[in-house]
């Protein structure tokens, strides 16, 4: 039974961040957001790293960074904001030290997301050896599509990952190019954290990331999963 807000909380508690579910009026509640860094070799190279020498690493966005209204408000304190289109992996069943061969049993569904990045602020943080939140976990930094249940589309292991800016193709890759596949990233991540139902994993972006300006129109998707359409305002 839920306690009355006015007697059990000193302030009104925040709402639960959610993602819509395609074809349903039900919502997927978001617990945490884990982002896989440099999970496509060509993107790792364009960011100045050797993909053959790195184990997977993760950073986080905040659940309330997710927006689904089709707009991205250009943030303050930055003049170099980049797009990174990624497939979302929605966890429906948690666990610790999940075996690779059992990992897909924990996936509820998939979607499309943009890991919007204040690249100038991220770059400053890197130089100083500081965390990335100022560049990655700001308000509205995760424009996202509705989720599609795995029960409907299966578990896509291949499919074109693409993004157009104002109609021009900027990112083009394939899920089969991911260095760490979905079962591997779930297994590895569950050894670092206890995964919970409601967790979202942003699975990495292909090469071609770049800056956007106000007024830009971003269209992207993952074949077999869905599309995402966002206006920069």
TrEMBL record:
It comes from the Bacteria. Keywords: Hydrolase, Metal-binding, Pyruvate. It comes from Ancylobacter tetraedralis. This is Fumarylpyruvate hydrolase. Residues 33-233 form the Fumarylacetoacetase-like C-terminal domain. Its EC number is 3.7.1.20. One of its GO terms (molecular function) is acetylpyruvate hydrolase activity. InterPro entries: Fumarylacetoacetase-like_C (IPR011234), Fumarylacetoacetase_C_sf (IPR036663).
């Amino acid at each position: 039974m839920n306690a009355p807000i006015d007697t059990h909380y000193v302030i009104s508690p925040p709402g639960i961040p959610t993602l819509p579910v395609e074809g349903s009026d039900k919502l997927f509640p978001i617990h945490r957001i884990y982002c896989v860094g440099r999970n496509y070799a060509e993107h790792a190279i364009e960011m100045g790293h050797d993909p053959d020498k790195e184990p997977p690493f993760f950073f986080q966005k905040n659940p309330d960074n997710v927006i689904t209204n089709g707009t991205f408000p250009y943030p303050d304190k930055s003049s170099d904001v980049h797009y990174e289109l990624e497939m979302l992996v929605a966890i429906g069943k948690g666990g610790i030290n999940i075996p690779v061969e059992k990992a897909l049993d924990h996936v509820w569904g998939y979607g499309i997301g943009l890991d919007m990045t204040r690249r100038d602020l991220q770059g400053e943080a890197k130089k100083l050896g500081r965390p990335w939140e100022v560049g990655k976990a700001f308000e509205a930094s995760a424009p996202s599509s509705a989720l599609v249940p795995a029960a409907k589309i299966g578990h896509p292991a291949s499919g074109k990952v693409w993004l157009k800016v104002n109609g021009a193709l900027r990112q083009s890759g394939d899920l089969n190019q991911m260095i760490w596949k979905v079962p591997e990233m779930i297994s590895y991540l569950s050894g670092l954290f206890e995964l919970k139902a409601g967790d979202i994993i942003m699975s990495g972006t292909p090469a071609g990331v770049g800056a956007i300006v106000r007024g830009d129109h971003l269209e992207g998707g993952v074949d077999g999963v869905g599309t995402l359409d966002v206006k920069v305002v």
